[in-house]
Specification:
With 347 residues, the chain is an alpha+beta fold. The protein is built from eight helices and 13 strands. The relative contact order is 0.15.
């Protein structure tokens, strides 16, 4: 029987401390809001996992974990639940793993609307199904009002790296090309606008999306795929600096090739921000040998998440700085690792 057709056992429309107390109220919240949607196969405190990919000689497990906090918890193009699923799936995918299973733990602030929780959980279920993963175990805690910002989510993910696949920044070589799967900075700009603190409005949506299918397509088309990295906090600039340092190379970017929406560029100009450092939640950068660049682009563009894939630069022999960019005016500038947080220009 569909959960939505059953009379609700939950009293009231907001979470109370009783929902975290271990009794009937807690059980009702978990069953109606969480397990009734995720439908884990086991009712035990641990998931019991089996997959054919684990039986292949040379296959390896990949494991990752991350915590998600965002204000507001719902924003154009997504919410904290979608963010949690996509972020963890992407952390597995860029390492070459096929994402398979997730755990999800919730810290819920007293007073949180139960309807909001239902929307977040439904969003997580949709994204997990689209990404081909199962949410198999989890936990809930309720804390006093003011102890957290509505809801925090921690997700851990397990995947399987196929035999023979070994992605890592250490494999990048001079001459390899850097490709991004689409426009940059949408998530960071969307969150800035959604908070309302800066009196800005722009028709933007977060790029939040799972990238497992995209990485799998590129890995299939490009046997020498070197490395991939999702450009989340710190943006493309931070991801490239980390990869260049790990590989012992430098990276040259082409400013004219960077895919940026006019709205994002305009917002950054107004606030004195650099879009290369804005967070992304559905963008990655990968490196392939130049001879496989066209195959990589074709594979990426065959997947919805990679329709706007473009080459943005290349690896070169190690120089004095890890990343530099050729500007549209013919000069070059250093693209350094972000130190702290970008702040709006105040003078």
């Amino acid at each position: 029987m569909n959960m939505a057709s059953k009379p609700s056992r939950l009293r009231g429309d907001r979470v109370t401390l009783a929902h975290g107390g271990g009794g009937r109220a807690m059980r009702d919240l978990i069953e109606e809001v969480f397990t009734g949607v995720f439908r884990p196969e086991s009712g035990e405190d641990q998931a019991r996992l089996m997959h054919d990919a684990l039986q292949v000689t040379g296959a390896r497990l990949a494991f990752t974990t991350d915590s998600y906090v965002v204000t507001p918890v719902e924003f154009p193009g997504g919410d904290i639940g979608k963010l949690a699923v996509c972020g963890t799936v992407n952390d597995l995918a860029v390492g070459g793993a096929e994402p398979l299973w997730l755990s999800a733990s919730f810290i819920i602030e007293e007073g949180c609307e139960i309807a909001l929780l239902r929307r977040i959980v439904a969003s997580m279920a949709r994204e997990a199904e689209a990404a081909g993963v199962k949410i198999v175990t989890g936990d809930t805690k309720v804390v006093e009002k003011g102890s957290c910002d509505t809801v925090f989510i921690t997700t851990s993910g397990v995947g399987v790296i196929p035999a023979g696949r070994d992605l890592g920044a250490v494999h990048i070589r001079p001459g390899d090309v850097a490709i991004v799967n689409g426009v940059l900075g949408d998530h960071g700009a969307t969150i800035l606008a959604a908070r309302g603190d800066l009196a800005l409005s722009a028709p933007l949506q977060s790029d939040c999306q799972a990238l497992g299918h995209l990485v799998a397509a590129v890995a299939e088309a490009c046997p020498n795929l070197r490395a991939a990295r999702d450009a989340t906090r710190g943006g493309l600039a931070s991801a490239l600096n980390e990869m260049a340092e790990a590989a012992g190379v430098s990276v040259e970017l082409d400013e004219a090739a960077l895919p940026l929406r006019p709205e994002v560029k305009g917002m950054c100009e107004i606030l004195g921000l650099d879009p290369l450092y804005l967070a992304n939640e559905g963008a990655l950068v990968l490196f392939v040998p130049e001879v496989e660049a066209e195959a990589a682009l074709a594979a990426m563009r065959s997947v919805e998440a990679g329709r706007e894939a473009v080459i943005v630069g290349r690896a070169v022999e190690k120089g004095s700085v890890p990343v530099r960019m050729r500007s549209a005016f013919g000069g070059t500038r250093i693209v350094d690792m972000l130190v702290g947080e970008q702040l709006p220009r105040i003078c």
